[in-house]
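Hi R.,

Here's the chain you asked about this morning:
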Amino acid sequence: MQAIDVMTPSVITATPDTPIAELLRLMLSHGVSAIPVVRGDTLVGIVSEGDLIRRAELGTHRGPSYWRVLLKTTAQLAAEYVHAHGRTANEVMSADVVTVADTASLAEVAELMDAHRIKCVPVLREGKLLGLVSRSDLLRALAARLAQPGAADTGAGDDLRIRNAILAELRAQPWGGNPRDAEVMVERGVVHLWGTYDSETERQARVVAAESTDGVRRVEDHMDRWTEPDLLDRPNWPSPGRP
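And here is the predicted structure, written out as tokens:
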């Protein structure tokens, strides 16, 4: 799936001259956490909840403390002052906006959200705003994906496809244990896992890898935790110092 498949179109937007009071009204009445700022149909910035929580009216703005004056440039301190006291979208918006193309994968969108600690990403095509992908949009896409019915009855051909997909996924992961063919068996969509694992997290990851494979109805876990054999406990093993 791509960004255009899950984005919210017909996004509520503001202009650079939109007053702060109107931005707040739009956010609260429509239940959105950010509003793109456009000039014509070109994105020039975005105002998020984070841009409005450090305000002089609330007493939450950052004052000119000794250490802030020492560590910040005058330009940075001036920008913070404008942000805390500004009256229009142009004065409080973030101009350096993280965006994605409409063809971006959901993995790219999620990676950007994590890396920049943001809740939504504007979707562009040739610089024009098409919509907005929020965390809620990703959750809705996940819910729709999980709601898709699995195969009610799989045949031998589908069992083989499932088995090959699980083996490929486990062999591609550092925690997958590089399983032998016989350690993954599938019968009518039910997966049986054998082998050994080093940690409970590793075991769980292998089960999840199987569960998330298309067509899997259930996973039966037959794996055992690997323990290093204590050779000195073997009855026929010579004790230290014995020939």
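One quick note: Confidence is low (pLDDT under 50) at residues 239-243.

Cheers,
M.
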